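Review form for a predicted model. The reviewer records the input and the model, then writes brief findings.
Reviewer: anonymous (R2)
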Amino acid sequence: MSFSAVADYADAEPFAGPTAKSSPSYTREKPNMFQRYFGLYPLAQRIEDKKRGVGVQRYPIACWALSAAMLGVLIYELVTNQKAQGSPFSFKPVVNPMLGPSSSALIQLGARFPPCMKNVTDFPITTPIPCLNDTANPATLLCSLEDICAFGGFHGETPDQWFRFITPIFLHAGLIHFLLNMLAQLTASAQVEREMGTISFLVLYAAAGIFGNVLGGNFSLVGSPSVGASGAIFGTVAVAWVDLFAHWRYQYQPGKKLAFMVIELIIGIAIGFIPYVDNFAHLGGLAMGLLVGMALYPIISPSNRHRIIVITLRLIAVPLAIVMFVVLIHNFYKTDPYAACSWCRYLSCIPTDANNHCKGYVVAVPFVALEAD
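Model under review:
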C-alpha cells in the first residue's frame, strides 16, 4: 500500500516558490487546525511541516485524558482485588503475571467475556465461577455467572452485556500491562493524535478498540476474559504505517523506520499470547486502524494521480470498515465462530494443559475446562 511509490514528481502540480517579496508573509502566516487537516495551505509548506513532524495540533489532549482515566480505572481494579483477597495483586488461586487482579475481578469490572454477553452452549449461565474472594485451588467459594458478570445481572434472561465490547478498552490486566500500553499510547499514539487532530483520533481509537474486541469475541477462547487498550493502540500504530508508506519520500530514513515498526509489531503480537491479553484485539485493531486511518488521516498529494489514488482508497475504506463490523457482530451473536475457523484460536493461544491445548472454553482459573469439540 505504498502510495508514494505511485506518486511521480514529473506530474506534480506546479508550485511557485516564495519570492523575495512574498517570503515574509510565507514565514509569518501559520495555518490553523482546519487548514492543516484539509491541506488548505501551500504544498511546499505542508511538505516541510511533514518533515519536521508538525501536525494538525500541538498537544495530544485525548491521549493524556485517556491515560489519566485508565490510571484511575487501574487503581480501582487493584482496590477491588485488595478488598476481596487482601492483596492488590492476585497470587491465588493462580498468579496474574501482569501483577493485577484475579480473572473473576476482571470479569466483574467489565472484561470482554462472551458468557456475559450471549448464550454460550458449552458455558451455560449455571456454570459456577470462583468468587472474587476465593484463593483456594481448586476453588471452594463459588459464585453464579450472573453474580460475577454483575452490572445488574440477567434477570433470568439471555446474557446481553454488549457493552463489554467497549469497557475492556479502559481495563488492564495489571500494572505491567498498563505500563506497556501507556508507553505506546503516550508516544506513538500521541504523535498520531498530533498529526490528525483529536476528533479524528477519537474516531480511530474507538473504532479500532471496539472492533478488536468484536474480532476477539468471535475467535478467542470464550471462557477467557480479555482486557486492555491494545486494540485501540494497535489502530493508531496502523495509522503510522499509512503515514510511512503515503509519505515515504518525506520520511527521515524510512527504511530504518520500517524495520523498527516491524520489530515493534512482532513484539506486540508476542505479548498477545500472555493471559488476559488477546492477539485478536491487536489484529482487529490493526486492521480497523488501517481502514479508518486511510479514511481520515491527512495525506499530502503532490500530484493529481496521487490524489485520485488516495480518494479511491478512502472511498473503499469506509464501506469496508462498516461491512466488517456488521458481519462480525452478526457472526458473534448468530453463528458459531469456531465452526468457521477452528484453527484461528491458535493466533492468540499457546497450547498447554492449562488451557486444554486451546481446544476448550477455559476460564483463567483452575476450576473449569469445558470441551469445545
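Findings: Residues 214 and 328 are 7 Å apart (CA to CA).
Further findings: The first strand starts at residue 129 and ends at 130.
Recommendation: see findings above.
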